[in-house]
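Dear colleagues,

As part of the handover before I leave the project, I'm documenting each prediction I ran so the next person doesn't have to rerun anything. This entry is a single chain, and its sequence is reproduced below.
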Amino acid sequence: QYQRRVRGSLVRGMESQSLARKPGVQILELTHEEMLFKLVDSDASFANALRRTIIAEIATLAIDLVEIENNSSVLSDEFLAHRLGLIPMVSKTVDKFADCRDCMNCSNFCSMCSVEFRLAVSCEEDGTLMVTSKDLYAQDNTLGVEPVQAEGDTADGILIVKLRKGQELKLRAIAKKGVGKVHAKWQPVSCCTFWPVPVVEINSVLAGLLTEEEKKQWLSLIHI
């Protein structure tokens, strides 16, 4: 719901091999959560390679380490850690961080390759308390790394766990840099698809020989 989706349509001509050497991109629609673009002068192999690159090769930040200090909720520590890892992070500054596997300043994590988050919530009243991604706070707000939120200030965050009276959740989470081919939590998009859009050329000479009924029948067959 909160991750971006990328959709692309492929427009190809008759000479796909020569056209594939000069691909172009036309942005048709761009919103907070979705982008629709047209890939022109290309072929299916290039479009699929672009799709796979978007999914697996673009670096993002995601929670990779969780230290539980207190968890009296109904969910186990391992379950909570898995849910936290799948919360998408705003990764506009991801290029400023070193890959945690290649960081030369630490053996586990440091400020050069990771961002530390804290979460401390307890339910003191009757009823159910929703713990969401809005309860995760970065220790350094200047880094610009935070959980992705839906548009609008009143939008709810991503649900992590529900607490009842007397229950508490307190933890520390470390977000690290990675790519989708290592783990799905580092994928920058939740869906990335493409479909071919053929170029249809009409022979005006032959079309002029068709009757009005034949023209209507032809148009109904190609769904124009």
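Helices lie at 16-19, 44-56, 77-85, 204-207, 212-222. Confidence is low (pLDDT under 50) at residues 14-20.

All the best with the project,
I.
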